[in-house]
Each structure stands twice: as C-alpha cells, then as structure tokens.
C-alpha cells in the first residue's frame, strides 16, 4: 500500500478569477451575499496571476472558475494570453453562465486555446432558464456559444471544449431531452447534474417530481443527492475533498481555501507566502489528516463547517490515498459543487 506523500506539489491548481456574479440564483451563496461576507467580492489581478505562474513552474493547469462569473474579470484576456505563452492550460470547468462576453474575449478564448468551459444552462428557453438563473438571459448565452463556435471554425481549433451542464429541477425535468438535442446541435457535450438539495440552504429549491425519469436520464439510478448517498454510500460530491491533495482552491485575493466548497476560513495566503509552504503548512496538513480520519476535528479547520466532512464524521467512511489516486481528474462538471 502506497503511503500518503509528505509534501504536496500539485501540477494543477484552482485560482478563482472572480467572486462577482451578475446572476441571482436562489440557493447560491454568492447570490445571497454569504461568499462576499466571508471571502470578499472581487477579481483576481493579472499581476497576481502572473506571479503564481512565474514562481511555480510545476503548475501545468489552472481552473479559473468557482464562486463568481469568470468572464466579468476585466483582465481575463491578459491572463489567458499569458498562460498560453507559458504553456499553462486554463479552463472554466467548474462552471460559467456566459451571459456577459465581448467579441474580443470570445475570440481570445479560441485564439489562446482556452481548454474548456462548463456552461451552466438549466433551461431550453428564457422562461425555463430564468426560473433558477435569475437575471440571466438564455438568448445571450446561446448567441455567445454560437460566437465561440464561429471562432473555433475560423481558427480550425477544437478549443475551448464546451459542456452544457443542466441541473435537474422539478421545473425543468421535462426538458432534458430537448436540452440534450440543443447541446448536440451546438457541438457541446451534455451533463445532467443532480441539484444541490440542502447543500447551501435548508430549503430544497424546486425538487425533482418525476424521480423515475431523472433516475433514468442521469444513468445513476437516483434523482437527488440523498438518494445517491443511500445507494452508493458516499456523498455525490465526495471527490471535491480530494482537491486538498490534487488541485487546491485559491481565492482571488490569494487566500488558500483548499477546496471549492469552502468559503468559511482560509489556510494562509499564497500571494504573501510561498505556495508550497502554504500547501504544506500545519493547518492544511491537519485538514488532510482529518479527512483521512487520522486526526480529530478541530474548530479552526474549515472542514468542520462542511456537510461533506460531517457526513464522514458520522459514517466513518474516511478518504484514503488509494481512493485519491484512483479518482483521476477532479476538474470537470460531473463533480463540481
């Protein structure tokens, strides 16, 4: 049995370029102000992005999306251009809403080979889309996707790869097939995601009604995250915990969050201290030991506030290094929050 590595030096990191979002999705902690109150509302600076790449040559890929809308960052074009020049892949596989994009930005995504975008589209028209993606405009999103495709054709490039992510709700469960067809027509992959349930709120927003239909469409045999846990014995988004080892999450201001669920507390600041030293400091190391069941819960570790960790605390199904190694990528929509 392979032992857990003593020092973490991942080739992939997650660096949130924006905690600002123009939408007001009902259960999102960004929309209700919880994220801003805890870790701030703002944009990653180009100078900080450049510093991370220049000082850490082992980094080969950076996920740029998390709690805000990536395409609102005014310096994003400069960032993706610099990453391209340094041969560092960048992507937005956690998710983006694509409501606000300039033509220059769209062309830059193709020109500088932006790796992939998970497009959060939970409807087939403005009416169904706006029930959850409040303040959004379905037609804007589709037009921006078409513009991306035009530039992909112009540059003869497969990038960025586009994924249509459709969160299953009660109000849109009858439109899954149509959404899948629309995605295919746009040259996009399609992913049907189980809704957040009570992950971020006590009340479940628009719960699935036709459970048999969604169970079949997901291919998982379940219609919500509670059913997933009952059937498989693990949390639907359990692999997000692996980020503390494989691709740790950093806030726009440099605060190390560890995973992309955490917005409660940080583990240090990578813009003020060395990235490797923060990744391997006492607090971060203790958190990893907690997730493996090797150390008891400690109040200053953000995990104690997380429902994923508290589920592990109850069922004692701790994370193992073998499980982390088997997990492959921890960067796609199938296991985003």
Automatic annotation (TrEMBL):
<dbReference type="InterPro" id="IPR013785">
    <property type="entry name" value="Aldolase_TIM"/>
</dbReference>
<dbReference type="InterPro" id="IPR007197">
    <property type="entry name" value="rSAM"/>
</dbReference>
<dbReference type="Pfam" id="PF04055">
    <property type="entry name" value="Radical_SAM"/>
</dbReference>
<dbReference type="GO" id="GO:0046872">
    <property type="term" value="F:metal ion binding"/>
</dbReference>
<dbReference type="InterPro" id="IPR034391">
    <property type="entry name" value="AdoMet-like_SPASM_containing"/>
</dbReference>
<keyword id="KW-0004">4Fe-4S</keyword>
<feature type="domain" description="4Fe4S-binding SPASM">
    <location>
        <begin position="241"/>
        <end position="306"/>
    </location>
</feature>
<keyword id="KW-0408">Iron</keyword>
<dbReference type="Pfam" id="PF13186">
    <property type="entry name" value="SPASM"/>
</dbReference>
<protein>
    <recommendedName>
        <fullName>Radical SAM protein</fullName>
    </recommendedName>
</protein>
<dbReference type="GO" id="GO:0003824">
    <property type="term" value="F:catalytic activity"/>
</dbReference>
<keyword id="KW-0949">S-adenosyl-L-methionine</keyword>
<dbReference type="InterPro" id="IPR023885">
    <property type="entry name" value="4Fe4S-binding_SPASM_dom"/>
</dbReference>
<feature type="domain" description="Radical SAM core">
    <location>
        <begin position="17"/>
        <end position="152"/>
    </location>
</feature>
<dbReference type="InterPro" id="IPR058240">
    <property type="entry name" value="rSAM_sf"/>
</dbReference>
<keyword id="KW-0479">Metal-binding</keyword>
<dbReference type="GO" id="GO:0051536">
    <property type="term" value="F:iron-sulfur cluster binding"/>
</dbReference>
<keyword id="KW-0411">Iron-sulfur</keyword>
<dbReference type="InterPro" id="IPR050377">
    <property type="entry name" value="Radical_SAM_PqqE_MftC-like"/>
</dbReference>
């Amino acid at each position: 049995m392979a032992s857990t590595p003593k020092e973490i030096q991942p080739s992939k990191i997650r660096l949130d370029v924006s905690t600002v979002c123009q939408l007001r999705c009902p259960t999102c902690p960004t929309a209700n102000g919880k994220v801003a109150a805890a870790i701030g509302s703002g944009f990653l600076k180009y100078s900080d992005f450049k510093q991370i790449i220049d000082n850490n040559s082992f980094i080969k890929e950076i996920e740029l999306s998390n709690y805000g809308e990536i395409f609102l960052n005014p310096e994003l074009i400069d960032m993706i251009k610099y990453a391209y020049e340094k041969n560092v892949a960048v992507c937005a596989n956690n998710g983006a809403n694509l409501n606000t994009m300039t033509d220059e930005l769209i062309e830059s995504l193709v020109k500088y080979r932006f790796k992939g975008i998970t497009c959060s589209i939970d409807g087939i028209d403005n009416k169904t889309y706006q029930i959850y993606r409040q303040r959004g405009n379905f037609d804007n999103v589709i037009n921006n996707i078409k513009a991306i495709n035009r530039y992909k054709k112009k540059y003869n490039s497969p990038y960025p790869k586009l994924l249509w992510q459709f969160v299953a709700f009660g109000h849109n469960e009858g439109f899954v097939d149509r959404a899948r067809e629309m995605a295919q027509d746009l040259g996009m992959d399609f992913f049907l995601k189980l809704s957040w349930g009570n992950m971020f709120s006590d009340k479940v927003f628009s719960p699935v009604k036709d459970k048999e239909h969604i169970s079949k469409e997901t291919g998982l045999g379940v219609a919500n995250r509670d059913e997933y846990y009952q059937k498989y014995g693990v949390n639907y988004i359990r692999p997000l915990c692996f980020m503390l080892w494989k691709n740790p999450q950093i806030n726009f201001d440099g605060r190390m969050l560890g995973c992309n669920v955490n917005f409660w507390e940080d583990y240090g600041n990578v813009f003020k201290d060395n990235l490797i030293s923060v990744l391997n400091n006492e607090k971060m190391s203790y958190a990893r030991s907690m997730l493996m069941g090797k150390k008891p819960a400690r109040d200053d570790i953000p995990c104690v506030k997380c429902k994923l960790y508290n589920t592990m605390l109850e069922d004692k199904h701790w994370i193992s290094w073998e499980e982390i190694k088997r997990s492959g990528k921890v960067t796609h929509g199938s296991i985003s929050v």
